From TrEMBL:
Cofactors demanded by this protein: Mg(2+)
EC numbers for this chain: 3.1.3.24
Keyword Hydrolase included in the entry's annotation: yes
Name of the protein in its database record: Sucrose-phosphatase
Pfam family, one: S6PP_C
Protein's UniProt keywords contain Amino-acid biosynthesis: no
Domain Sucrose-phosphatase C-terminal: 284-411
Organism: Arabidopsis lyrata subsp. lyrata
Swiss-Prot/TrEMBL keywords: Hydrolase, Magnesium
Annotated family: Belongs to the sucrose phosphatase family.
Pathway note: Glycan biosynthesis; sucrose biosynthesis; sucrose from D-fructose 6-phosphate and UDP-alpha-D-glucose: step 2/2
GO annotation (BP), single: sucrose biosynthetic process
Its job: Catalyzes the final step of sucrose synthesis.
Length: 424
């Protein structure tokens, strides 16, 4: 969050499974990729992305290896009981101290063992401030009442969250996704960075609290589960700031951005003609997002108006512009564009996708921009990532000129001797 010097234009706080990520109806992750390109194109430079998930950090990291997730500014895990910041996921120790109030995990373990209705979930789901069980839905009310009374008598103040039709989480009273969001908003306000707008996104019972925080817009994706829809019908149906989208998962989030007029909601992936794909704000990051989307479509053989765009792209490269391949080899930028010709359609019919992450542009001197990003490429189940740096120059009214592109393998990529299929 330190990269922002002023209040973020938009903060999106989204659940992951079946909200940002569609596990059942979108095998190629197209909805998520649509959101990704919209966020990197229009929002990354002045907004905040927060993931709020029931997963523990270990399982969150596993999901990142399976799906093309962007890197969030803040990650809230274990149903709002752990908050971490940035790429290195630095834990918020102050939040830990707040949750310690009237919480004794040992006593909670002891009392929950007395309920045969509760089946302990896997070890990865058990955290310092969260115990997770499975339970038959018909037993929830009775167990919740009795367990709460037992723990209250022993001086432990808890919150029970039922979600997903069978998940039963026991947390400190001060925990949960809603309390974590309220804490984050208060922290940002203290730093003079309270978001102009905040959008909460969810699909299940453990997301309910997100929609109770004042002055926050909310979207329940079209595939929201029964327990969340029941809560909505009983508590929030008349609230104009909460909607039930008619699109699934990340598509519903994009729909909500447009519905509440929170900013641009046309993803570059929804634009077929790249010459018509123009950003509202002058930002060289837009050029990078657009180029790598073109590159994906080029290799998949899906590009329309391709000769016109490649001619335009080549003309926007400086005659002496250089591309440095991650292998260290250097070549002319214009020659690199020409070389793309022989790769047209070579990935047609294959599971080939490209996405950009953490696209950040800095104007270093008047008329000069440096754009840094992670460029990901997936072929089948194999993924590679390059940390990419692009230097642009610009003159008023003349657009951006590509001066220099350098790529190095990221730490997450296993380097193989043959890197010839990495073009740019």
């Amino acid at each position: 969050m330190e990269r922002l010097t002023s209040p973020p234009r938009l903060m999106i706080v989204s659940d992951l499974d079946e909200t940002m990520v569609d596990h059942h109806k979108d095998p190629e992750n197209l909805s998520l990729l649509r959101f990704n390109s919209l966020w990197e194109d229009a929002y990354r430079h002045d907004s905040l992305l927060v993931f709020s998930t029931g997963r523990a950090q270990t399982m969150y990291k596993k999901l990142r290896k399976e799906k093309p997730l962007l890197t969030p500014d803040v990650i809230i895990t274990s149903v709002g009981t752990e908050i971490a910041y940035g790429n290195s996921m630095v834990l918020d120790d102050n939040w830990v101290e707040i949750l310690n109030n009237k919480w004794d995990r040992g006593i909670v373990e002891e009392e929950t063992r007395k309920f045969p209705e509760l089946t302990l979930q896997g070890e990865t789901e058990q955290r310092p401030h969260k115990l997770s069980f499975n339970i038959d839905k018909s037993k929830v009310k009775a167990v919740t009442k009795e367990l709460s009374q037992r723990l209250e008598k022993r001086g432990v103040d808890i919150k029970i969250i039922f979600s997903g039709g069978n998940a039963f989480d026991v947390l400190p009273q001060g925990g949960g996704k809603g309390q974590a969001l309220a804490y984050l908003l208060k922290k940002l306000k203290t730093e003079g960075k309270h978001p102009v707008n905040t959008l909460a996104c969810g699909d299940s019972g453990n997301d309910t609290e997100l929609f109770t925080i004042p002055n926050v817009y909310g979207v329940m994706v079209s595939n929201a589960q029964e327990e969340l829809l029941e809560w909505y019908a009983e508590n929030a149906k008349e609230n104009p700031n909460i909607i039930h989208a008619n699109e699934r998962c990340a598509g519903g989030i994009i729909q909500a951005i447009g519905h509440f007029k929170l900013g641009p909601n046309l993803s570059p992936r929804d634009v077929s003609d790249f010459l018509e794909c123009k950003a509202d704000n002058v930002n060289p990051g837009h050029e990078v997002v657009k180029f790598f989307l073109f590159y994906e479509r080029w290799r998949r053989g899906e590009v329309e108006n391709c000769e016109t765009y490649t001619a335009s792209l080549k003309a926007s490269c400086h005659p002496a512009g250089v591309f440095v391949h991650p292998s260290g080899a250097e070549k002319s930028l214009r020659d690199t564009i020409d070389e793309l010709g022989k790769y047209y359609g070579d990935m047609k019919g294959k599971k080939f996708r490209v996405w950009t992450d953490q696209v950040l542009a800095t104007d270093t001197t008047p008329g000069t921009w440096i754009v840094k990003l992670d460029k990901w490429e997936q072929i089948g189940d194999e993924r590679k990532c390059c940390t990419t740096t692009v230097k642009f120059t610009s003159k008023e009214g003349e657009g951006f000129v590509w001066e220099h592109v350098q790529q190095i393998w990221s730490e997450e990529t296993e380097i193989k001797k043959d890197d010839s299929n990495w073009i740019i």
